[in-house]
Amino acid sequence: MILLCAIFVAFASEEGGIIFTKEDAKQIKYPDPSTADVNISFEDAKNKLISENPEVTNESIHGELIDDENFGIIWRVSSKTTNGKNIFAGINASNGELLFVYDGSKNVQGRDSISKDDALKIAEEYIESRVSAEKINEIELEDVNYIGPAADDLPGYYHVSYARIIRGIPSLSDGILLDVNAETGEVLSYDKSWSMDEEESTHRY
């Protein structure tokens, strides 16, 4: 989850796209889509990205199949929207589940108008639309933090975090993170990590 947050920051801060370090590259493998055991095609992944933001410009969509140490085999897909901003997502290549997304097009100008309670409700509804009821029953709200604007012409946002609960114990790594635009209520980013074995669960400190 920490790695994905770092990627989101790099992606948001560079007009040219994501900047990967040499260390990032070492952690990523690139399976051959023609031989890898996947159920989701690149076209399916493109459609998932478009469903997240219909303003995506189809001709700018790029993607690659990667074997990520945190998420397994996924389609990493990126594009620009009609306002020239970036959108970036990771999609499970086995079942099409959206694992993470960052949408820079929703960093619009204006004043914050979404309350903390509003942000929490938006986060809950977003998760309910993407996560099975079984997994929803396994998460617990940790915190809702307001993060102030990075610049005068940008909105603030709410960082909403949920921990995965394994046998009554919060996981050290697994859970769901969302950032909710404090002006529009749109979800700026979403990250779901669900890889820890139940035997590995330990308390958070």
Give a structural overview.
The protein is α+β, with helices and mostly antiparallel strands and 205 residues long. The protein contains five helices and nine strands, in the order H-H-E-H-E-E-E-E-H-H-E-E-E-E. It has helices spanning 2-13, 22-26, 42-52, 116-128, 133-136; strands at 28-29, 62-68, 72-80, 86-92, 98-103, 139-147, 157-166, 169-181, 187-193. It has a nine-stranded antiparallel sheet with strand order 1-2-3-4-5-9-8-7-6, sandwiched between helices. The chain is flat. The two termini are 17 Å apart.
Write a short abstract of this structure:
By secondary structure, the chain is α+β, with helices and mostly antiparallel strands. The protein contains 5 helices and 9 strands; from the N terminus they run ααβαββββααββββ.
Q: Which secondary structure elements does this structure contain, and how are they paired or packed?
A:
Layout: H1 2-13, H2 22-26, E1 28-29, H3 42-52, E2 62-68, E3 72-80, E4 86-92, E5 98-103, H4 116-128, H5 133-136, E6 139-147, E7 157-166, E8 169-181, E9 187-193
Antiparallel strand pairs: 1-2, 2-3, 3-4, 4-5, 5-9, 6-7, 7-8, 8-9
